[in-house]
Amino acid sequence: MSGAPSEPVLISEVQARVARELDRLAPVIDPLGRRFAEAGHTLALVGGPVRDAMLGRAGNDLDFTTSARPEETERLLRGLTGALWDMGRDFGTIGAQIDGWQVEITTYRSESYDPTSRKPEVNFGDSLVGDLSRRDFTVNAMALTVPERGFEDPFGGLVDLANRVLRTPGTPEQSFSDDPLRMMRAARFAAQLGFTPAPEVVAAMTDMAGRIEIISAERVRDELVKLVSAPWPRRGLELLVETGLAAYVLPELPALRLERDEHNRHKDVYEHTLTVLEQAIDLERSRHGEDAEPDFVGRFAALMHDVGKPKTRRFVDDGTVTFHHHDVVGAKITRKRMKALRFSNDQVDAVSKLVELHLRFHGYGSGEWTDSAVRRYVRDAGDQLERLHILTRADCTTRNKRKADRLRRTYDDLETRIERLSEEEELAAIRPDLDGAQIMEILGIPPGRDVGRAYKFLLELRMDHGPQSEDAARDALLAWWPGED
After folding, report:
1. Who's near 230: CB < 8 A, 6+ residues apart?
2. Cα(27)–Cα(289) distance, rounded to whole angstroms?
3. Residue 225 and residue 232: Cα distance in Å, rounded?
4. CA-to-CA dists, residue 4 to 134, 193, 218, angstroms
5. Do residues 416 and 389 touch, judged by C-beta distance below 8 A?
6. Are residues 273 and 387 in the same domain?
7. Which pLDDT value is given to residue 263?
8. Is the pTM for the entire model greater than 0.90?
9. Burial class, 236, CB count within 10 angstroms (exposed 0-12 / middle 13-18 / buried 19+)
10. 332 and 246 inside one domain
11. Which of 202, 223, 250 is a domain's end point?
12. What Rg, from alpha-carbon coordinates, does the chain have?
């Protein structure tokens, strides 16, 4: 796996980052720490905020662990904030908004999972070390006690962070048995932080991959979204495939590793897909800016764009390989998988549309499309047009520079034509030149199916010939009516 930082960092550099971050956090963590200490309780910043401070990743979400029980935590927070929430009370968590910071404070926990259950059995613990021991990875099992700012690292997380390695506080088998979603979190951290799982972690993930089936679709989906939206998703996706986890959470991905025919007449679809994803991310950043929010929909469409190929692969007598209609088949497969993962209808529709349209450009040839065809391209893409531009360009992975340059120039031409027609005709909001009320008045008909037929006729007229004057549209409508059955 490549494309992410892997070089170790100096411990002194990590310590300097933490000092700077603690100074930034001081206005919230110091008063909070003193309040808990005065009440006889310990409080420690823990998990992601500590890890991110060491990596130089600033954030405004702060996680704490404490010896105080939830009701005591709630009492101590009152007066510091006007916003409290206790949706996580059953898990010992009380949340608050303090001067623009989102704070969650959780009582020391000692939780275990029934092997057949999706939900943990939560028991409150009595020590910070015990709480840290139940966390997923050593880099998340470090704490900073407040207000004294004492550093607690009982499992060597600092060294692992410096070496960019993912290990578990106890055995990975026990950790993944307690919460199988941690296996996906390992892949997510590989994609998000550029860390490499230790060999024993990879081995446990491989042996226990089937345990992921007890995890709810929603939790799996959320981890997948974070992974795909990370800076280096290829690393995480390769780990999911390598360990067999992908066969359970996204089986369409390993299915792309088609056996090559003996003459190697087609490219490796799996490697092609990962390259398309990386190229889509590069285009996303170049078109929208490095600081833009990651576009999950566009990235997931790149990941799924060829999932119809395994079902449509055919070997022709002349030795060539075809994948006819893999775009349509792939859209159906994508829709089914995303629904199983409980994605929203809007996300399902958007990604499926992009998968279905990703080959449309290849009918453009060298620019032979009429203006009518360009209008239909824009209409069919709808609000996904910008993502379709990115996906179509990213889908070119040929090593033939002349061919790649030709495809790029041709798509440049198509985008230029779309921009020109958009300026002239407002393509994004393309509608017939007469509305429903005008149609009923001109034809003397009531609301009903015939109005819809007439509307469709006028839309096709607009697509074929561009904007019409009201009189021209009226004449065309009257000439068409009573129309075809």
Report:
1. 188, 191, 192, 236, 294
2. 32
3. 13
4. 28, 8, 28
5. no
6. yes
7. 44
8. no
9. buried
10. no
11. 250
12. 28
- Residue 290's Cα: distance from chain center in Å? 17
CA distance 47 to 59: 13
- Looking at residue 186, its pLDDT comes to 98
Provide the terminal-to-terminal Cα distance of the chain, rounded to the nearest Å.
59
- Spacing of C-alpha 436 from chain mean position: 40
What pLDDT, on a 0 to 100 scale, did the predictor assign at position 259?
A: 56
Splitting the chain (485 residues) into consecutive groups of 10 residues, what average pLDDT does each group show? 63 83 89 94 94 86 95 88 82 89 91 61 85 94 93 94 95 94 97 96 98 96 98 97 98 85 61 96 93 95 96 84 92 98 97 96 83 87 94 92 91 91 65 84 89 86 81 88 63
Going 81 to 86 to 88 to 92, the CA torsion angle's sign is positive
Which helix (H) or strand (E) is 220 found in, with range?
helix 217-228
Is 485 part of any domain?
A: no
Do 459 and 414 fall within a single domain? no
**Domain co-membership, 369 together with 221:** no
Q: For residues 81 and 103, what is the distance between their CA atoms, to the nearest angstrom?
A: 10
Domain that holds residue 466: 436-480
Distances (CA, A) of 44 to 53, 82, 125, 151, 207: 14, 22, 14, 9, 35
99 and 79 fall within a common domain: yes
Residue 258, in any domain of the structure: no
CB 86 within 8 A of CB 94: yes
Same domain, yes or no: 145 and 235: no
Output the domain CATH number for residue 197: 1.10.110.30
d(CA 299, CA 277): 6
34 CB-side CA count, 13 A:
6
User: Residue 114: what pLDDT?
Assistant: 64
Strands (E), 319-409: 321-322
- Measured between alpha carbons, how far is residue 31 from residues 64, 101, 201, 210, 452 in Å? 14, 13, 39, 46, 66
Residue 256 placed within a domain: no
Choose among 210, 207, 189: nearest CA to 138.
189
Q: What is the pLDDT of residue 83?
A: 83
CATH number at residue 29: 3.30.460.10
What is the rounded CA–CA span in Å between residue 108 and residue 123? 9
* CATH at 322: 1.10.3210
Token pair for 20: 């700077």
| Distance of alpha carbon 394 from alpha carbon 358, whole angstroms | 10
Asked whether residue 294 falls in the same domain as residue 313, the answer is: yes
Residues 348, 370, single domain; the answer is yes
- Picking from 116, 146, 163, the residue at the C-terminal end of a domain is 163
Q: Is 284 helix (H, G, I), strand (E, B) or coil?
A: helix
Does some domain include residue 257?
Answer: no
Q: How many domains does the chain have?
A: 4
